[in-house]
Amino acid sequence: MRRAQLLLLLSAAVALGLLLAGCGSSTSGGAGASAGSGGSSGGTSGPDGRFRLGTRLPPALANRPAPTIKLTDAAGGTLDTASLVGTPYLVTFLYTNCPDVCPLIGEEIHQALQQIGTADTRRLRVVAVSVDPRHDNAAAVKAWLKRHQEPPEFHYLIGSEAQLKPVWKEWFAQPQIEGDPESSHSAVIWLVDRQGRLATNVSAGVAFDPSDLAADLRTLVN
């Protein structure tokens, strides 16, 4: 399948709300409003029924190569996802000043990694891409990672708008709107298998039970 066709399919998935999940403040019925529910996001089972939380990708999109990401790691150096062949990973989109959705995503990922244990956590990576290049610098990101107690396997990638924009485009991610006090960016967690293929994704605009994500991560690493 040509790359353009794959991107169109990914765009169609976005249109279904896989990326542009509702992510407003607690007053607008977004993630803040649902954070106390503790419920699942209600996704269908994944490919071959493997995933508990992850949604079933369209047949033409499932198991296709994930778009490559190569950006500055706030912790130092550069991360190129092309180097992660053999290592499954997550991809999500965050910004450090986010009042609701990003702290929720960070906490859910943190809890899921705790539940799968240190050994399995070391077998995967988390790749977070900034959607706010104006404010997400290395110092702000390091403080965010420390505040949310994320492990070394959690890589928060930053860059200029010119550097980040192609990644947003390839993953059909909506960046944070400058000056918007509420979350207006894409809220999703993609799971990529050890062959670098799209396995499933999770709508992260609403709260879900981290144990469900933990189950999906165990499936991904095993």
Question: Could you please describe the fold and organization of this structure?
Answer:
Helix 3 (101-121) packs across helix 6 (210-221). A hairpin with a 5-residue loop joins strand 6 (188-192) and strand 7 (198-203). The protein has helices at residues 3-15, 31-34, 101-121, 138-147, 161-170, 210-221, and strands spanning 70-73, 78-80, 89-94, 125-130, 154-158, 188-192, 198-203. Residues 1-47 have low confidence and may be disordered. It has a 7-stranded mixed β-sheet with strand order 2-1-5-4-3-6-7. By secondary structure, it is an alpha/beta fold. The chain has one domain (3-221): Glutaredoxin, CATH 3.40.30.10. Helix content is 32%, strand content 16%.
